[in-house]
Each structure stands twice: as C-alpha cells, then as structure tokens.
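[User]
If only I could read backbone structure tokens as easily as an amino acid sequence. I have put the entry right below:
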Amino acid sequence: MNITIRSSPAELGKMAGIAASRKIKAAIEAKGHANIILATGTSQFETLSQLLSEEGIDWSKVTMFHLDEYIGLPVTHPASFRKYLKERFIAKVPALKEAHLIDGEKDPKTECERLGKLISDNPIDVALVGIGENGHLAFNDPPADFDTEEPYIIVDLDEACRKQQLGEGWFKSMNEVPGQAISMSVKQILKSKSIICSVPDERKAMAVKNSVEQPVSNLFPATALQNHPDCTCYLDTRSASLLTKQK
C-alpha cells in the first residue's frame, strides 16, 4: 500500500481522480476497453468530480461495476447508492459500454449470483474504494469474511457502520438505516489490477491508522489493502493525522 497525503479533500480528490483517469486510459490503450469499480459515499465526492473532468477517456469502452448497496432500499431514497451513481456519475458521462448496478430491491441471493457471473467474466482494471469509520472495505464490516470466493455477498451492517451512514446525513434516524447490504467481497476487490483508495476527513483518522499500521486482520478489514501490489491510499492531513510515520 502506497500512501499519498494532500492538504485538503479537494487536493486529495484531484490526485486520486487524475490517477484513476491515467489507469483507465492505459487499460483502454492496452486492450481496447477498461473495467472499473466505483464506490459511493461522501469520501468519493472529490475523486469522482475530478475523474469526470478528465479529458481523453473513451467512456464507450468502459464497463462500470458497483461496490455495494443496501438491501430493500428504494432507488428513490436519498441514501440509495444506485441513485448516487446514476446522478453523480452515469448521467454526467457519455454512454458507458455497460453499467452494472446492484439492485437491492431484488432477491439478494439471485442478485449476488447475477453480478458474480458478470464480474467473473470482466477482470477489473481499476477499483475506486474508501475506508469506513469502522475500518470496513465496501460493506465488509469487522470481522470481515476474508475467505469467501464469492464476488458478491450478503452482509450484516454493524452499529458503527449504520451510525456513520446516519451521521453523514443519508438517513433521518437509525431506524431508517437498513441492517443488511449486498457487498463486493474483500477477495474480489483485491483481484483488481489497481486500487485507488480515497479517505478524507478527521473522523476517518483512527480507521486509517488501523488500516495502515495494524497487521492484516479481518478485525480491521481495510488492512487487506496492505497486500495488494498496486494500491495507493490518498489521504488529507486530517485523515492522516494519527499515522505514526507520515509519508
């Protein structure tokens, strides 16, 4: 895991978005198309904004996969990650080759199987991810399943994860926050050729410290990124503030 620290979320997002753009264009140049994973949430605002502003990406050659989604949440709900990606990404790019969104309103097991087959046929070139306040990677809360070979799995959301979603303003009360989600598995995320991890904000500082400095453990799910050969974690000075050694 490489660490890059910038002064603000805007600078963090700029660097991460530029890096993602370069890797997408390199994949298209090398093989004629690119497969990407997009995360959602407040941590991705600046990164996606920069990526959308980058010139020279032939989006008609890009297939997008969705990282995670709540089970049972309507696409019209403000917290829906499908809604997020449709409004903040898909609507703002020329037609993608394909966009595979997770439909949390369908039977979860069937949806996991559908998406699993699709992603198994489309190796990922670039994954954009974040780290949760509880150290989760996607919706793989601790103790995360590091062993499953299934690309998409049904997960239970722990209290810390649900409180984060409430605190970020996506829901009006804890009762509204779903208790389960469909998430890309840790092993599937790690199959990505390149991973760009964007983590702004002081409230993520302890999660960042644990993810970077703790031994790899499913109790700190994002520590799994330590073993990836091409992963860069983009931080701002606040999210990096607790690191023992800042780079």
